[in-house]
């Protein structure tokens, strides 16, 4: 996720149509989301998110959680919604169709560990960056000495999440003889690594790092600086929702909410604090 590239597949389009949504045509110059979502001026802030992607997006175990979901991203956008006197609604959406869903009016914004890239900025607008992300190589503890870096994975199968910048990075930097196996979600990657179907998982550092705290059989052997940053995405021209998000992010950082959430999920203060 994690860092996820824009890819509107035919399957995703069918899925959106199956929900009874109108497809977004290539010449659609609308400056706001359609009425299916709450819109910047409504009583709701509706987001699309690919869940689970711990610790950024997860189902809540506490039944008192307003939206039913939690995680760093979700708690942050919940604070933004609360500050704007809006109800947060989360629509769980697979990442490979998440931007198509936003364009079709399913949600006001995509909040799902989305890396800001020049390619994406041609098709959507982004909030101010709110999280610095890097890629990482995770392997089983038994292979930690064997696969210390991405370059060590010569001839091996490397797992990535489909549609992500991690997939793009590995395709551009994979060692000779290795192959890339793209899977739908993080849980699929962890299962494949555990079973030995793949030799390593390359994806966003915070996602891999959190997994190592939950499963001691996994270790991170390389952290790959990429200068990637996460942003909250809105449909091109949807300035009302974009302004709401940026104002909320600014408030969360100034009133201490952001720092508290960062420490809660990552055990340390943000690097810029």
CATH architecture of the largest domain: 3-Layer(aba) Sandwich
Top-tier CATH class of the largest domain: Alpha Beta
CATH topology of the largest domain: D-Maltodextrin-Binding Protein, domain 2
- What is the total tally of β strands? 11
Nearest-integer average pLDDT: 86
Summed up:
The chain is of the alpha/beta class and 273 residues long. It folds into 2 domains: 10-132 and 230-266, 3-Layer(aba) Sandwich (D-Maltodextrin-Binding Protein, domain 2), CATH 3.40.190.10; 133-227, Periplasmic binding protein-like II (D-Maltodextrin-Binding Protein, domain 2, 3-Layer(aba) Sandwich). It has helices spanning 10-18, 72-83, 98-103, 118-121, 165-173, 186-195, 205-214, 239-254, 257-266, and strands at 44-49, 58-59, 69-70, 87-92, 109-115, 124-126, 131-140, 157-161, 179-183, 200-204, 218-235.
Detail the topology: elements first, then pairings.
Elements: H1 10-18, E1 44-49, E2 58-59, E3 69-70, H2 72-83, E4 87-92, H3 98-103, E5 109-115, H4 118-121, E6 124-126, E7 131-140, E8 157-161, H5 165-173, E9 179-183, H6 186-195, E10 200-204, H7 205-214, E11 218-235, H8 239-254, H9 257-266
Helix pairs in contact: 2-8, 2-9
